[in-house]
């Protein structure tokens, strides 16, 4: 059974349709990348999985539950945003602990989860610092730490590397993949960068204008693109 099942999901803002009945099945532990040009609907689809946008048609299931009408907090997902969205007046440690404290988690468990995330992400030297005292890469790690401490069934990433310089982007790609190999958490990762998609994905979903052009493993898309759009998009340099 799919861990995340997106079935004929549509989205309209007013009278403007931005997604047309898209379907994607994501298996437990899979790292799936949604890729496509700016404005094709990637963030909207991810935000619907997260519960940050309503669904205009179709169903989204996580595990064995249809989640269409569940608020984000009840979906067992954690999302990492492009702009990190860290709390500026909280330390690294407090940023990571906050979501758990909101949920009235036992303090001993909060401390244990924060320690584990800090170990995994090499954040121990920075626990007492504030976001403004960190580099871009460190901030991105804190944002990932905040997702990890919640121990969710599904990670959602929306262009998490687009604010980083090219060198750091390559390094963080590797770190995110290592994190995935270690935790094996089902992941949906949005990017407009075909290199990111090709190097990180178990499965790529190529989108254009609110529709899915092709779904397949990176090499499959490379060897057997369904059409010229996919060929051009996957084959072109970043
Ligand atoms: P992507 O993430 O692939 O760049 P988006 O999902 O952000 O694309 O946007 C898809 C389309 O939906 C775009 O045309 C965008 O302008 C439109 N859109 C996104 N959010 C809203 C909104 N809240 N209201 C109206 N239109 C929106
Ligand atoms: Mg987007």
TrEMBL record:
What membrane topology was assigned to this protein in its record? Peripheral membrane protein
Domain ABC transporter, residue spans: 4-234
Q: Which UniProt keywords apply?
A: ATP-binding, Nucleotide-binding, Transport
One biological-process term from Gene Ontology?
carbohydrate transport
Molecular function terms from GO: ABC-type transporter activity; ATP binding; ATP hydrolysis activity
Q: Where in the cell is it found?
A: Cell inner membrane
Q: What is this protein called?
A: sn-glycerol-3-phosphate ABC transporter ATP-binding protein UgpC
Record organism: Mesorhizobium intechi
| Covered residues, full protein | 1 to 238 of 351
């Amino acid at each position: 059974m799919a861990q995340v099942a997106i079935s004929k999901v549509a989205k309209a803002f007013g009278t403007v349709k931005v997604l047309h009945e898209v379907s994607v099945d994501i298996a437990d532990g899979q790292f799936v990348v949604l890729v496509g040009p700016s404005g094709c609907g990637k963030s909207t689809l991810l935000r619907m999985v997260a519960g940050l946008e309503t669904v205009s048609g179709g169903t989204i299931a996580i595990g064995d539950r249809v989640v269409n009408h569940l608020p984000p907090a009840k979906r067992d997902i954690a999302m990492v945003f492009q702009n990190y969205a860290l709390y500026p007046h909280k330390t690294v440690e407090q940023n990571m602990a906050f979501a758990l404290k909101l949920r009235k988690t036992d303090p001993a468990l909060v401390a244990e989860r924060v320690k584990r995330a800090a170990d995994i992400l090499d954040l121990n030297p920075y626990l007492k610092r504030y976001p403004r005292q960190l580099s871009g890469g460190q901030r991105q790690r804190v944002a990932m730490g905040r997702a990890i401490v919640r121990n969710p069934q599904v990670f959602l990433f929306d262009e998490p590397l687009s604010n980083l310089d090219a060198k750091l982007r390559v390094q963080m790609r590797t770190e995110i993949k290592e994190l995935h190999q270690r935790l094996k958490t089902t992941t949906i990762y949005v990017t407009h960068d075909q290199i990111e998609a090709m190097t990180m994905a178990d499965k790529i979903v190529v989108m254009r204008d609110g529709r899915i052009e092709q779904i397949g493993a990176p090499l499959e898309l490379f060897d057997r693109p369904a059409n010229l759009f996919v060929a051009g998009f996957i084959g072109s340099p970043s």
